[in-house]
Each structure stands twice: as C-alpha cells, then as structure tokens.
Design brief:
Elements: E1 2-6, E2 12-16, E3 28-36, H1 39-45, E4 61-69, E5 81-84, E6 87-88, H2 94-97, H3 111-118, E7 124-125, E8 142-145, H4 148-151, E9 152-154, H5 161-164, H6 170-179, E10 188-192, H7 196-207, E11 212-217, H8 220-228, E12 234-237, H9 243-250, E13 258-261, H10 272-282, H11 291-299, E14 305-308, H12 321-326, E15 330-333, H13 338-350, E16 360-364, H14 369-378, E17 385-388
Parallel strand pairs: 10-11, 10-13, 11-12, 13-14, 14-15, 16-17
Antiparallel strand pairs: 1-2, 3-4, 3-8, 3-17, 4-5, 5-9, 6-7
Amino acid sequence: MRALCYNGIRDLRVENVPDPGIINPHDAIIRVTLSSVCGSDLHLINGYVPTVQSGDILGHEFIGEVVETGPQVKKLKKGDRVVVASVIACGECQHCQEQSFSLCDNTNPNAYIAEKMFGDSGAAIFGYSHAFGGYAGSHAEYIRVPFAEKGCFVIPEGIADDSAVFCSDAFPTGFMAADMADIKPGQVVAVWGCGGVGQMAIQSARLLGAERVIAIDGHEERLRTAQMIGGATDILNYKKVNIQDALKELTGGRGPDVCIDAVGMEAFGEGIGYYYDRAKQYVRLENDRPVVLREAIMACRKGGTVSIVGVYSGFADKIPMGAAMNKALTFKMGQMHAQRYIPRLLEYVRDGKVDPSYLITHRVGLEQGQQAYDLFYESRDHCMRAVFVP
C-alpha cells in the first residue's frame, strides 16, 4: 500500500510499504478514507521528538471503513464506517476503567522510553513516535487498529465524513480542555490558539456554559472564524495588542476564570521572551517554546484554572511558578481521553450543535504530504487543516 513516511526533518515521502494484517485477535484493519494533519505532528516533523525513525508512517486523526476484524472483535463488522480514537487504550486497566484512556497501562510496548523521558508511560498513540508505541499512523491506505472495539466508533447516519474526522482528535482535545477546567455558567474563558484544537475548545467552552470566550491568535482570519463560527465573544491579535493588558481590560482588571493553552511547545509570539525561546530551541537547549503557558499563568485570575492541551515534550524554561503558587492556580492537563468523549461529541455533531467540518481548508492526496504540512505550519493560503484522501 501507499503511505506517507518520515525521512528526516521536514522530509516526508510517499512510499510503498507492506499492507497491515491482523496480529492480535482484538485488531481491526481499517481502509482510511480521511486523515487529517494535526499540530502535534509538526513536533515530530520539525525534529523536536527524538524517537521518530526514518520510514515511520505519520498521522493519528482519521476515519475509515472496517475491512477485516480479528476473531475477538464482535461489535464491529466489515463495511462499518468508523471514527478512530487517536490514543490506543485497552479498556481494562485501572486508568481505562476510570475513563482516563490516555493513561492506559497496557498499549505502549515501548513504555521504557517514555519512562526515561517522563517518569512513566501513558497510552500509545498512532503515528506518534516510538516513545508512544511506534504504531503505524493513518496517512496511508490502510491501518491496523489494536483494541478495535475500544477505539473504533461507528459513525451515525447523517454525519458527513468531513465532520466525523475531527471527532477522532481535535474535537475531543478541545472539549477536554474545557471539560477538565470545570467551566461554570457565567465564567470567562480565554483560549490561546485558534487552530483546529483551539476552535473546538472555544465551541466547547460555550457548550459548557461560558458566558464570554476570548480567542487569542496572530492570524486575523482564524480570529474571525473563531468569532463568526466558533462563538468567541472577543478576539485578540497578539501582534497588535498587549495580551495581559487587553485581558485585564476585558475582565474588569480581574483576569479570566479559565485560561486554555491550545498551542503548546511551538508557540509563536512577540517580545524578548519569544526570541529567547526560539534561540534555545534552535540550538536544542530547550524542547519547548512556552510563550503561551507563561502568558496564561500571568493572565489567569486568582484561584483560576490553567488548562493545557497543547503538547509539551521536555523541560520548559522560565515558567512563572511564583505567580502560579501565589495566585493559587489550578493546573489541569494531559493527552486527551478520546474514548471518553467521542460518543458524546458524535451526538453534538448529529444534533447540529457543532459541525467541525469548517476546519478543513485543503483536501489533498498523500503525494502532497510535505507541501500540505508546510502550508499548515506556515499558515499560508489560510490553511487551518489539510486532510489527506489516501
């Protein structure tokens, strides 16, 4: 089959690789029909995750059709149209039983790598480096899905492919950002980043009762989309205003109740702090550019919550822990628990409360893989998300 493979920093190529087969009786083979780029892929492609190897197939946000199932798969059948959770979970360990699927104990065969990096290992993730299991990703014609009954969800009739694909990752990630912040009706939420995950976090915050949602980004078209489609009540362009001052002004000097970081380790920004991070990251003295995280901590009101779903991979520098401690902030973070949220989110989509299909700005074949990621990374041609049609 054809697959989009990593061959080095910003070097993706389509290669012919062996078709996947059933290895475990709980597996299913899926014919991929749509597979989206994701901001977290960029961390691999740009060389900030060391356990990516030449030949690895990228991609973790996808839908497809079931073409084969293992003998222990009883709830899926050939021909089912399914959305697949990007994190791989067994469904049986303590963390899965507690609905914390991204912390699964049993799906990462390379847990020893993650343990050296993070002190412990979470769940495996499709196409997301060998530290996260080394599983082949979804930018391919076919993919093997382990623990298929736990990770595959049949897409209800009436939901278009373009809407369903983001229930794999972007929508559950954005929803979890709002959900774990325990947003209460009437609260003010600030969301940094208006890419796919940020757009979904904005809509989710509104769904959960936020009275005001302030969207922050450096691209005017994304801010306008957040306001016109996502329901953001206020928009701030960090290239034009001082974010700390603007948030104080919008909240009567108090600060937002909840600050969501939907950007993570490759944040863009302004000022000396940003260029300090860029310089350290360029010479590999730091993995992360935590511009947004610093801003969120400083902006959040006393006793508020900072919710982090943007990915960080290493040792972030100059984090204002003094502010966090003395303002009694609550930190919530993590890779998202897709299996917990996907059924609920499919209902939102089916009922017309959210339609994530507007995230798609480019539809391309695998052969345009590197160009699509370049467009996405550089936000050229108004690229919000590119999807591959293998």
